[in-house]
Structure formats: C-alpha cells, structure tokens
Amino acid sequence: MNTTENTSAATAGTPGPAAGSQAVSAGHSRVPVLTVRGLTKTYGSGDTAVDAVRSVDLDVASGEVLLVMGPSGSGKTTLLLMLGALLRPTAGSIAVTGRDNRDVDIAAAPEKHLPALRSHTFGFIFQDYALLDALTATENIAVAANLAGTTGSAAHHRATELLDRVGLEHRATARPSQMSGGEQQRVAVARALSNDPPVLLADEPTANLDASRGRDLARLLRRLADEDHRSVVIVSHDDRLREIADRVLWLEDGQFRQIASMTIDPVCRMSVERTGAHLEWHEQTIWFCSEGCKREFAENPDSFQP
Amino acid sequence: MKGRSEGSVPITRRFLINRPVRTAAGAGGIGLALMLMLLLAGLWVGVQDRVTTYDDHLGADLVVVPAGTRSLFADPGVLPAPAVDTIAQTPGVTAAAPLRTMYQILELPHGKAAIAAVAFDPTSGLGGPWALSAGRAPHSADEVAVDTLWADQHTLAVGDRLPILGHPMRVVGLTDDTALFMTPLVFTTTTGMDQMLRATGTTGAVLVTTSDPGDVAERLRGAGYTVRTPAELHQASLDLATDIYGSPVRLMVGVAFAAGTLVVALVAYTRVTEQQRDLGVLKALGATPARLRRIAVAETVALTVLGTLAAVVLLLLTRELLAWWRPAFPVLLTAGTIAQTAAAAAAMALLAAWLPAHRLSRLDAASAFRSGR
C-alpha cells in the first residue's frame, strides 16, 4: 500500500485533466471499476445556482481503497450519492463495471434501472448504520440479498456466512437496538456485502465509533478490498482512515485539490490547507482550520501533537 | 430484481410486530371507526326487524283495510263494523276478525310516552300478543297487555293500572318481542278500544284467514274491498321506516365511512412517515418504488384486517352494553351487514393506502445517507 502523502500527491484529481488516469496508474495496475468524467451536480438555477460538485474526473480500481476527505459542505456526500446511483448528476458520466464485466453509465441509465443497479453493483455503508430496527442482524443482511434477487434459505445462508465473516455469528438474532455501535456497523458492512458488489460506498463509516472500534472497522474495509478485490470509496473526516487508504483525495468547493499541500490541524485533527490561521511553534509553522483551534493550541501547546 | 419473492424477509410483518403498542393503537382506531359503521348498520337492521314485528305476527293470511291504506299504523282509517261479518261470509274465508291500531301519547307519572295500541278480538285469536313473559292476553274491555321492556322502563307490573284516553286500563299481561323501534305495542280488546274512542260501529281493518288467499283476495277485491297480504304490509312498514329514518341513517353511515377512511388514512400515513427512514434505506439498497408501495399497502391492509377483527369484538361488547342499557334498540348483525362492512373496510384500506403509497413513490433514496445528520 502506498503511503498517504505519496499516493495522494501523485493522485489528486481534478482540475488536472489527467488526474483520473494518474489515479489508476499510481500503484494500481488493475482495471478501473469506476470511471468518472466531468461529473457535475448543480443545485438551483440562474443566479441561485450552486455547484456542489464541479466537473470531477476520477478512476477507482478494483481492490483499491479511496478516501475522499474535505470540509463540511465540500460536496463529498453529493459525490458519493452520485457514484451510488442515488442522485442524478447534472452533467458527466459514471461508468461502472459490474461483476459480469459489463459497463453501465449510471448517469445515463433510465430511472427504472437504478434500483437494480444499486442492488447489484453497490454496497452501502451509512454513517448511522441505517439498519432496520424491526429486523434481526441476519434479516437485515438477508433483506439486502432479497433485493438483489437471492431469496429463501440461500439469502439466510448468505447472511449467516457474512455475519461469521465480520465476527458476529453469535449476534445473529439480535436486533440493532441490542447491539453496540461497533456491532451495528459490522452488520452494516455485512449487509453491504450481501449482494457481492464490486464497489463499496461508505459515508463517514467511523463517525459514530470510538477509536478502537473505528480502527477495527478500517481494517475490515481494507481486508474486504484486498481479499475480494472490491473497490472501496470512503467519504470521511476521519484522519485515521488514511492508514488504510491507497489514495486520499481532498474535495473542496466541489473540486479535488492537491492534498500534498495539506497538513493536519493538531487540535481537531482535520486536514487543512497551508493558508489562513497559523502560528510558529518550535521553529515549525502550524496550520489550523480556524482561529478557534489556533487559540486553543496557543493556550496549551504541549497537550497537542503537531 | 424480483418482485415479492417467496422466502423474502417478511418486512411488513416485522414492521407490525416491532411496535406492538402502536400497531394495537392503530388497529384499535380503525376498529372503532369500523365498529361505528357496523353499529349503525346493525341498528338499522334492528330497526327494520322491529318496525315489521307486528306485521310478521298477525296470524292472518289477508288483511282488509280501508281504501288507500298501505301500513296498519301509519294510515289510520275505518271500515264499517258490519264488514267483518260480510267478509266472514265470503266463500273461502275461514275466519274474520276486527282489528284497530293507533298511535297514542300517554301521560304517565314519569312523563309522556308514545305507544302503538292494538285492539284485537280475543275470541278470534288473530292479531293479539304472540309471546307472553307474564300474565295473559286481555279478555275484557278494561284490560291491556303491555310490552315487557316498556313495562320495566315504566315500572309497570301485572295488576297495575294504565290510563289510556282517560280509561284506567288494568295490566293483565306482559308481552315479549313487541317493542317497535320507537314505540311499544300495547294490546287491548276491540271492545275496550271502541269504548275509549267512543267509536262503535267501525273497525280499522279485518284480519282474514283462509286456505286459498289468492282466490279469496280476488273475491274480496271484487266486492270492493282493499286487500293486503301480510308480506305487503311488512314491505310497507319497511318502506315507511326507510322514508323516515333511511336518509339520516345513510348519512350517518356515510359520515362513519368517511371518518373511518380518514382514520385508516391517518394511521397508514403516520406509520409510513415513521418508517420513512427505514423505507429510504430499503430504496437505497435497491427496492423499487413498486415494492415500497406494496409494503405500504400490505401494512395498511393488515392494519385494516386487524381493525376489522377489533371492530367485531368492540361491537359485541357495545351490543351487550346497549342491550343492557337500551334493550328496545336491538343491534342485529347479518351476513350481509358484515360483508358490506368488510367491503367498506377494504375500500377504506385501499383509499387510505393511496396517500402513503403515493408519497413513497417520491421518496428520496438519498435520505438514508442524510438521516441522523
């Protein structure tokens, strides 16, 4: 696996027109599963039009873990929704290669084909787990298998197998309300795998987990990419996920920026650009996301690790 | 993707079981609305049964009435008393007996009370009481037999005096199955009624028994009489009741149906709104709008079925309560009534499910990603 800085330095996407192909070639010789070109999402029209995502190019290879970071409102979730066929782009294309090696342009697919595309091509992992409270762990997984066309004992068997894989076979009959956050997220991961999708899309998967469980989940996602040659696209603020990512892309104002110029705010641990609030400390320039973090650091610098 | 495949996780059932209190409350609300419909329908059947009870127990094969009379109680008229003997002598007639009916308002110690008075000829056995809970049928001019329920209501017993048109009649019997819808039947003799009305020389109608009703009716009509069969009188009473009470009852049933539909719709809509997150997750996972609509419709139909069962239980309880509190208002359930209510419930469920199903068609799958933010 490439280190984050090196990889991201080589793979940051747009506005460079060749960023997408760079992304694939930088350490991954495998064929791209997701190929995004000129992806744009505009909300509103006329004077009130807002570009949430602007002409993004992106390639994601089989078995690759891609981490998309960025400040709130940068367009991360909008990008993920478009990749997962949950939101129609205003312009651009999203070609995805299914398990049957057929390419489909999600952006151009008719509305009635989208449910089947979602259930066969993507596995979704949500920030708040999004498990159905009325169903047991097994049923939560089996219902996703049902939607992909696997029913009856086959779906049940698949669910049991996946629970075993995420280490929760002993929680098969538990309901979400009876499980910890970490357990729920692992069930959510198992559910995302129920249709054996080539692409996993995860929205802030560690946001509600403590450090230990967050790390466990990160390792699990890495393992799924390595063992199954699955592409994993993660949208997150969580810096810990850099450890498992092949590439880290920084999205801001709907566009990818060069992440090489980014650094970590030692107070909130967010990635920040080397502009704005900063101070000199022990002959280093420390950059912050805001004046608040800078002040907090200045009051007690020893309690933070730059 | 397959539609509702066999062996799929039973999502609707799980949704219903997951929140049993809410499911019970929803079914209870629907049950109350349906029970109101069933109650009104049952009361209407009860009214129809009550208003025809005397017509059904006349004991006669034909009834000769004054010209233009359709109903024994609603169209008072008179025939000359000698008509009884004339009719009795008509070939084919086995027996003929006078009958007089009238509505009357009585002044009782507890207030005014309306009755339907029937004067019959005790020697003929026609037109008199057909079931007694106490005492006997009246024989002499100052005797009456009154409805048991009405007697209980007015604390009357055998041996008491009941003033009618200034005549202190003596209660000699308590009759069963003689409560009309709004008025009880009070039986007396034609002699007694003639004295009360000071109307000797006339009668209200003539009850006729015969083994050949068709021919006898033709003969009597040929002699210038107006003849009705008990079935015609039964129908006339029903028509009259429908004319008087039908519109308000239909209006009430209509209001109950509308209210029931609204209740079902509200319950269904509330549940879908509560489950919007879960349904959004299912849509994000690949559920088609049609599948989500099926979930909403199935849940609404299941709640309506549960509500219908609750309605039957509630109705049985209400009927018992009503029988104890107001025994003169029977609630009769027929297969037709239940079938009509079940059809109404199905119509309600389908109407009510439309709104949430329509809403689900527009459900944003991306909402699953945004929930909890």
Commentary on this structure:
The complex is a heterodimer of chains A (306) and B (373). Chain A is an alpha/beta fold. Chain A folds into two domains: 4-263, Rossmann fold (3-Layer(aba) Sandwich); 265-306, no CATH class. Helix content of chain A is 31%, strand content 25%. Chain A has helices spanning 4-11, 19-25, 76-83, 114-121, 137-147, 152-165, 181-193, 211-228, 291-299, and strands spanning 32-43, 50-61, 65-69, 91-97, 103-105, 122-125, 199-203, 231-235, 247-252, 255-257, 262-264, 271-273, 278-281, 284-287. In chain A, strands 6-7-8-3-9-10 form a six-stranded mixed sheet, sandwiched between helices. In chain A, strands 2-1-4-5 form a four-stranded antiparallel sheet. In chain A, α5 (137-147) runs parallel beside α7, α6 (152-165) crosses α7 (181-193) and α7 packs parallel to α8 (211-228). The radius of gyration of chain A is 20 Å and the shape is globular. In chain A, 50% of the residues are buried. With 373 residues, chain B is α+β, with helices and mostly antiparallel strands. Chain B has two domains: 11-51 and 240-370, no CATH class; 62-228, no CATH class. Chain B has helices at residues 11-18, 20-51, 82-88, 148-153, 190-197, 213-222, 230-274, 276-285, 289-325, 335-361, 367-370; strands at residues 62-65, 79-80, 93-108, 111-120, 132-135, 143-147, 161-164, 167-175, 185-189, 202-203, 205-210, 226-228. In chain B, the strands form two sheets. In chain B, strands 1, 3, 4, 5, 6, 7, 8, 9, 11 and 12 form a ten-stranded mixed sheet that branches. The longest helix of chain B has 45 residues, at 230-274. Chain B starts with 10 loop residues before the first helix and ends with a helix. The chains are: A alpha/beta (306), B alpha+beta (373). At the A-B interface, α3, α4, α5 and α6 of A face α1, α8 and α11 of B.
